[in-house]
Amino acid sequence: MQMIRWGLRSLCRSRKAGLYGYSSKRFLRTASFGAPLNRNPAEIRSKVLDCRESYFWSSHGLHDIRYQIHQDRKSADEEPVDPFALVSDELSIIANRLRSMVVSEVPKLASAAEYFFKVGAEGKGFRPTVLLLMASALNMPRPESVAAEIASSFQKDMRTRQQCIAEITEMIHVASLLHDDVLDDADTRRGVGSLNFVMGNKLAVLAGDFLLSRACVALASLKNTEVVSLLATVVEHLVTGETMQMTAKAEQRQSMEYYLLKTYYKTASLISNSCKAIALLAGQTTEVAMLAYDYGRNLGLAFQLIDDVLDFTGTTASLGKGSLSDIRHGIITAPILFAMEEFPELHSIIDKGFDNSENVDAALEYLARSRGIERTRELAVEHANRAAEAIDALPESDDEDVLTSRRALVDLTHMVITRSK
Amino acid sequence: MQMIRWGLRSLCRSRKAGLYGYSSKRFLRTASFGAPLNRNPAEIRSKVLDCRESYFWSSHGLHDIRYQIHQDRKSADEEPVDPFALVSDELSIIANRLRSMVVSEVPKLASAAEYFFKVGAEGKGFRPTVLLLMASALNMPRPESVAAEIASSFQKDMRTRQQCIAEITEMIHVASLLHDDVLDDADTRRGVGSLNFVMGNKLAVLAGDFLLSRACVALASLKNTEVVSLLATVVEHLVTGETMQMTAKAEQRQSMEYYLLKTYYKTASLISNSCKAIALLAGQTTEVAMLAYDYGRNLGLAFQLIDDVLDFTGTTASLGKGSLSDIRHGIITAPILFAMEEFPELHSIIDKGFDNSENVDAALEYLARSRGIERTRELAVEHANRAAEAIDALPESDDEDVLTSRRALVDLTHMVITRSK
Question: Which cofactors go with this protein (chains A, B) (predicted)?
Answer without folding.
Answer: Mg(2+)
